[in-house]
Specification:
The protein is α/β, with parallel strands linked by helices and about 270 residues long. Helix content is about 35%, strand content about 20%. The protein has a single domain, classed as TIM Barrel, CATH 3.20.20. The strands form four sheets. An eight-stranded parallel β-barrel has the order 3-4-5-6-7-8-11-14, surrounded by five helices. Strands 1-2 form a two-stranded antiparallel sheet. Helix 7 packs parallel to helix 8.
Length: about 270
């Protein structure tokens, strides 16, 4: 099973659990930096590996009225400041090929959004940066079909690949997690991430997506019990005021309590102290 090293952080399905956390979208420099510092404080207190995440542009919005974030140009200074102030590795997603070459010097992991996990040119552009690439498995994609997306990255001599489970479309405006997919994707020999907060999303159904955050803990516990490399969770200091995905984001205390619990399950799953 492959191991990825990101800023001295070891990521593999056998290594201690890592957390990828941050607000869904960059709302402002001040808010993003505050969230990064708060999350680092939690990670330091609980002695866990942390990768900060946030999106400069939420291009896959339900409505034309939906907020999208600060944009690529403004995000570069924000990511630079977060690195300088916290030393945390950073993950962000891209939606267009041209964004890959720009963002590669500011973040540590480039993420392919679930809706774009089959977009060949975008995946190849991300792979060409030689940065680790996190593919979020599409809501419509079987776990065995993810292999084709990984082959697009490997075609560019980049084997720094992460795969994320984030649920399947189940009828209209609903997602369900099939935990068999984690075991199936493990056979590709890449680190597997479980997206705890998007897996409880209720997509569409109005101008904004809903969510059932009361299921985040149980689904995350199940994923960690199976054995994954990381938990992906969107976290906001005040989810009710978040500009996107507020219905399925955790607040800081909820995130801290979740981390505490998942650490213990991870120790049992991977048999370490």
């Amino acid at each position: 099973m492959s191991t990825l090293i990101v800023n001295k952080l070891e990521i593999s399905n056998e290594s201690p659990l890592v957390f990828i956390a941050g607000p869904c979208a960059i709302e402002s420099r001040k808010h993003c930096l505050s969230m990064a510092l708060s999350l680092k404080e939690i990670a330091n207190e609980l002695d866990v590996g942390l990768i900060f995440k946030s999106s400069f542009d939420k291009a896959n919005r339900t409505s034309i009225k939906s907020a999208r974030g600060v944009g690529l140009s403004e995000s570069l200074e924000i990511f630079t400041e977060i690195k300088e102030e916290t030393g945390l590795p950073i993950l962000t997603d891209v939606h267009e090929q041209e964004q890959c070459n720009v963002i590669k010097d500011y973040v540590d992991i480039i993420q392919i959004p679930a809706f774009l996990a089959r977009q060949t040119d975008l995946i190849i552009a991300a792979a060409k940066t030689k940065k680790p690439v996190n593919i979020k498995k599409s809501q419509f994609m079987s776990p065995w079909d993810v292999k084709h997306s990984t082959e697009k990255i490997l075609s560019q001599s980049n084997n720094n690949i992460l795969l994320t489970e984030r649920g399947y479309s189940f009828g209209y405006n609903n997602l369900v997690v099939d935990f068999r997919s984690i075991e199936i994707m493990k056979k590709l020999n890449f680190p597997i991430i479980f997206d705890a907060t998007h897996s409880v999303q209720l997509p569409g159904g109005g101008e904004t997506s809903g969510g059932q955050k009361e299921f985040i803990e149980s689904l995350s516990t199940a994923a960690v019990s199976i054995g994954v490399s990381a938990i992906f969770a969107e976290v906001h200091d005040n989810p009710t005021r978040a500009i996107s995905d507020g219905n399925n984001q955790l607040n800081l205390d909820e995130f801290k309590q979740l981390v505490k619990k998942l650490i213990e399950f991870d120790k049992l799953s991977k048999n370490y102290k």
